[in-house]
Amino acid sequence: MNHVTSRFDARDSQELETGLEAARAALAENRCIVMPTDTVYGIAADAFSAQAVATLLAAKGRGRSMPPPVLIPQAATLDGLAADIPHFARELAARFWPGALTLILHAQPSLTWDLGETRGTVALRVPDDEIARDLLKLTGPLAVSSANRTGQPAADTAEAAFDQLGETVEVYLEAGPRPVSGEALGSTIIDCTLTPPRVVRAGALALELLREVVPELLDADGQPDPATAAAEAPGTGPADESEAPEAGTAEAPHAAESADADTSAAPEDSTRAAAPEAAADSGAPLDTTAKQAPPRGEDAAGESARAS
Length: 308
Fold this sequence. Notes:
This protein has 308 residues and is α/β, with parallel strands linked by helices. It has one domain: DHBP synthase (Alpha-Beta Complex). The chain is 25% helix and 14% strand. The chain has nine helices and eleven strands. Strands 1, 2, 3, 4, 5, 6, 7, 8, 9, 10 and 11 form an eleven-stranded mixed β-sheet that branches. Helix 1 crosses helix 5. It is globular and about 65 Å long. The N and C termini lie far apart (42 Å).
């Protein structure tokens, strides 16, 4: 069956409704769509479909060593995708979601997915964009990467995304420039699988704000807050840097890319701690067959997720 690329003006309420349904249908058929987020435009795929994720990576011109993160519709979806969630990660989600914060967490071992070369973790974010969340409520969580060819500028409109991705994407949702105001910055990425947690990519959220919630948070160079370090070891200066894992190691892998920007903010050679050996998309405990398929829509994370 031949598929034709369709473009919808999401600023028109009727076109938005039609476009969301077209996007849902395309994603269900393992095809890619382009959607607005609060940062830049993203190319999205059903992350529980290896075929769909492979199509997404091919459209961007990148390999499996840079798997995409996952956008979710609400923080309640967290428990359906992640395991052993530390208390500070929940506090960060409560403070900054929806927003430009991506959290790397241990993935639920019961889920089957294939985002690429991963290390048993998944990078999650709730976007602060109503259209994006409306789509996510229809589809469940999605593997999303910035809507551009790797190494090219991130797209700030669906038209700019089409110029780079063309017919490799089935549905484009145009909602005007993103971000709506301010500088286009990627989300800040924090590796919550480390103790203490560490920023693996600086982004739209300032380190100072994040440390208001998690004072022990290490910066992207593995350094603690000087004030916190001095308080913990009076008279000895900053805390011993030897305790901080070296960036890019198994103890502190880089995040591959946020669902927003993929240019200078996200190093091309990073191999993020990501999902289990499969794609991190839908939230929920799935059926009991060998390949679990998440329930779609707002309840994707299941009853346990809503309790978080």
